[in-house]
Amino acid sequence: MAFNSSRFSGNSFNAGHFDGIKFDKAAGASPVAYNWSANGATLEAIESSMVSYWKMEDLADSKGSHALTNNGAISFANDGKYNKCATFAGTGQYFSATDSSDFALNGKVFWQSVWMKLTDYTASGDINIISNYNAGTQDGWALYYQGVTDRVLFVTYLNNSGTIIVATGGSAISDNNYHHIMLIDDGVNIKIYVDNVEQGTASTATITDSATGIKIGEGGALQLDEISMGFKALTTDERTALYNGGAGAFYTG
């Protein structure tokens, strides 16, 4: 395994680009600490907590067993934050993965991380970043971009009883540049970070599992790169090292 720190639907959703996270580990039988330029943090715990890492260069899950299905011929041809990325041209394009307990978040501490660039800002639409949501039963959760506010939100849906917005990001990101989006639930609060700055927080809420699997992207023009998720309340040092001063840190396993 390795980390490289050189660059480390209830709603309608818009397209975009996502890119991945990679980490470098020295060879050898014994675990060794990762050496990082950011904060001197040791990120070995991030790897051990990680359940999926999608580099967005292909459909593979580099850490777990959740390979993606390409719905709508999403392209991997463009350069991303690190190597290539997934480029979404509009509605009807998304990745999906079969449901798993790895996507059931209720009662757990967890984190999600993604690099995202909006390539064609549309104020009237929303973009699904990553979700586990059933539109029919209104169950599940979603990390998504809301066009009308130009913000990132994390929402939970509870048994068709309405939408509960649990965290709202405060920074506009429609500038055609890559931004690092991170979601952390420490068991007390759910927080959204944009480029390593806390943007929104709310008390941890009940998160119903939709049992429909993961959906990534859909709704607009964007690029996504280095998407990862795991079960751990990341520390400030770990979160800062993932952002790595804007250069990023990327899993190369």
Report on the structure:
The chain has 253 residues and is mainly beta. It has one domain: Jelly Rolls (Sandwich), CATH 2.60.120. It contains two helices and 18 strands. It has helices at 44-49, 236-243, and strands spanning 2-4, 17-19, 23-24, 50-54, 69-71, 86-88, 94-97, 110-120, 126-134, 139-146, 151-157, 163-168, 179-185, 189-194, 197-203, 214-216, 221-230, 250-251. The strands form three sheets. Strands 2, 4, 6, 8, 13, 14, 15 and 17 form an eight-stranded antiparallel β-sheet that branches. A seven-stranded antiparallel β-sheet has the order 5-7-16-9-10-11-12, with no helix packed on it. A three-stranded antiparallel β-sheet has the order 3-1-18, with no helix packed on it. Strand 13 and strand 14 form a beta hairpin. Residues 5-41 have low confidence and may be disordered.
Primary descriptors:
globular, mainly beta, 7-stranded antiparallel β-sheet, 6% helix, Jelly Rolls, 39% strand, 8-stranded antiparallel β-sheet, 253 residues
Compact summary:
The protein is mainly β. The chain has 2 helices and 18 strands.
Biggest sheet architecture: 8 strands, antiparallel
What is the average per-residue confidence, as pLDDT, rounded to a whole number? 78
The CATH topology assignment is Jelly Rolls
By DSSP, the count of extended strands is 18
- What is the 3D form? globular
Q: Are there runs of 5+ residues with pLDDT below 50, and where? A: 5-41
Task: Report the radius of gyration as a whole number of Å.
Answer: 16 Å
